[in-house]
Amino acid sequence: MVNLTIDGKNISVPKGTMLLEAARSAGISIPSLCAHEAVSRSGACRLCVVEIKKGNRTKIVTSCLYGVEDGLVVDTKSERVLNVRRLVMELLLARCPESEVMQKLAKELGVEPQARFIADSDKGKCILCRSCVRVCEEIVGVSAIGFFARGSHKTVGTPYNEKSDACIGCGACAYVCPTGHIEMTSTGDKRKIWGRTFKMQACTKCGKFFAPVDQLKFISKKTGVPLSELTVCTECR
Ligand code: SF4
Ligand code: FES
Fold first, then answer.
1. Last residue of some domain: 52, 75, 108?
2. What is d(CA 89, CA 111) in angstroms, rounded to the nearest whole number?
3. Is 215 found in the same domain as 182?
4. Ligand 1 atom with the shortest distance to the CA of 176
5. pLDDT digits (tens, 9 = 90+) for 142-177
6. Per the domain annotation, does 31 fall within a domain?
7. pLDDT recorded at residue 117
8. Which of 73, 108, 143 is where one domain is finished?
9. Of 41, 128, 134, which is best to mutate to test ligand 2, by the most ligand atoms within 8 angstroms of its C-beta?
């Protein structure tokens, strides 16, 4: 176990725990956007900054990527932290002004849209955190989406923005996206995502449409389980 102090509280957590989780385990909330338990971390949003003190030295670190250390003194709400966090929030809000998630977070942090940052009108709600790309590559294993173009034109999507044959319609990307940028709709036996329409499988017991047929075919191919054995939803299994 590692012993440290966060906001004046003495905390003991397992070695390898990140400061974000250590704080949360002690009931201390730190705002975050891009840290999702399902995917490896990118440290992209920078909202989770905290101030750490080692000896006489202090520095700002991203708590979702910084592991706990014995004797560390952490401040999640110092003036310095709040200033950095507000600035980060202003930039995120300028990038995605129409994102409801961003508007809500900004309100909670007391941040208003600032005239000094010109608001983007063409980036949708994407903060380029890479969580969607990572889940598609690391967890699902199909790599149907990626980042394209460079600099301020960088966007996430399918290659050439065309319908991707690799996509199985699982929706994992939409699930991990912290801002709601990825549009997915499921109506009746159809699911729409990334410009494609997927046919949904009805559960052979309860009749509920529960997964795209392409996703079940992919699982069947990967695991060797016959497709006919994958047509019952998790609730009826
Ligand atoms: S679409 Fe969502 S998950 Fe993907 S990079 Fe953008 S904000 Fe992150
Ligand atoms: S949650 Fe830590 S950088 Fe985004």
1. 108
2. 7
3. yes
4. 3
5. 999 999 988 878 899 999 989 999 999 999 999 999
6. yes
7. 76
8. 108
9. 41
Domain that holds residue 59: 2-108
For residues 85 and 143, membership in a common domain is answered with: no
Which residue puts its alpha carbon closest to atom 3 of ligand 1?
Answer: 177
- Nearest-CA residue for ligand 1 atom 4 is 132
Q: Is 33 in the pocket of ligand 2 (CB under 6 A)?
A: yes
Q: Render pLDDT for 92-121 as a digit per residue (tens, 0 to 9).
A: 998 888 889 999 999 999 988 766 777 777
> Do 101 and 9 fall into the same domain?
yes
Taking the CA of residue 44 as reference, the ligand 2 atom at the shortest distance is 3
Atom of ligand 2 nearest to the CA of 46: 3
Reported as a single tens digit per residue, the pLDDT across 46-76 is: 999 999 998 889 999 999 999 999 999 999 9
pTM of the complete model beyond 0.90: no
Q: Are residues 42 and 139 in the same domain?
A: no
